[in-house]
Please model this.
Amino acid sequence: MFLMATGQEIGRITVPGERILVAHFSPDAQHLLITSTDSTAKLYQLPSLKQVAVFQSSNDWMHSAFVSPDGKLLMAICGALTVKLWDIATQKEVAVVKGHDAKIIGAQFSHDGTKLLTWGEEGVARIWKIAELLKPDQLTGHSDGVFSLAVAPDNKMLASASKDHTIRLWDAQTGQSVRTLRGHTEWVFAVAFALDGRTLASGGQDKTLRLWDVATGQEVRRFEGHTESVRSVAYSPDGTRLATASSDATVRVWDILSGRELMKLSGHKGEVYSIAFSLNGNQLLSAGADDTARVWDAHSGQELRRLQGHTADVWAAKFSPDARTIATASADRTIKLWDALTGREITTMRGHANDIFSLVWSPDGTRLATAGNDKTVRLWNVQLGLEVLTFRQHAEQVWAVAFSPDGTILASGSWDKMVRLWRAMPPQ
Model:
């Protein structure tokens, strides 16, 4: 480091055994930022050159790095396809941005620090709003972990199910708690809104399926028959039936008006974690601990297809909005896409570092959101098979994700007792 007026050397920093890749002054000229081939960025106070912070990026070199105009964030291009953001005060990674399908060759903050610009070798530049990457809304009220989320079709209400034995209803626009539904005597694993938004179904560790009046919060019907926990619930598109998946290795279908069990589907060799109806209500999709997902005739109960390819528990399975594709998420850390008609595996997407517990399609079918044991929520471009955003602000494993009906907001629920709302729109 040299004094410009005289050319005199006034300081020197060395990184023993490594090569320095980037050296920049912070915008306020109070710090010096250096990245090197040890996959770190280091911040030094000026003029003392005392090291005040270290930021680690796995094994990826940081080819470009900058401090935000307000001095609160560090941004770096890590490897070929990733940009990461760190909070300088805490030295914690707070966001991972992926969206280019070729090497990222540049990135910079806007002058006011509200946006991030990235550009890649594919000839595309993307603009990201930093507030949408960093500041999800946070809904607090549960006294224990959150297992399941559902958003009402009119986007007015959000429901969350918890280990604290309750279901909470939130105003989806303001984030305010509206009411708490009490009745389950153990953990509540699942919630789902009816298509008219007037009733809510829930399932829990107490082996019951319950139906609630959303307007009053009153339990209106209870369905009993499962011999173990009810892990997942789904309404049929015509609103006349409910389907449940259970730890007792069965799927059951119920008549909503009478409460009568219509059908029991047996075939899974272990717990069944997930259940979903097809768009026309003629098929059911289940997934479980036997490493498979299965497609059933929703009227006869006949098994139509078995999706095999995962090497560990399949925690979640969902039809795409157009019912042409099935997505599955597994403890083998992968997401797989399948042809819904033939059962043929289309592609496998990787990125999570541990079990993937939950997945949801965006309403337009172009994106998938996933969440898991690695404490992250991830957003994927389905056509490209690429992860485009990673949200890391949960402190514990994330069990639930749900899109708003317009696809702009993504909700996540975690064992850290929090429900968080993220801006899920793609970059400009």
User: Anything to note?
Assistant: The chain has a mean pLDDT of 92. Residues 130-134 form the longest helix (5 residues). The chain is about 0% helix and 55% strand.
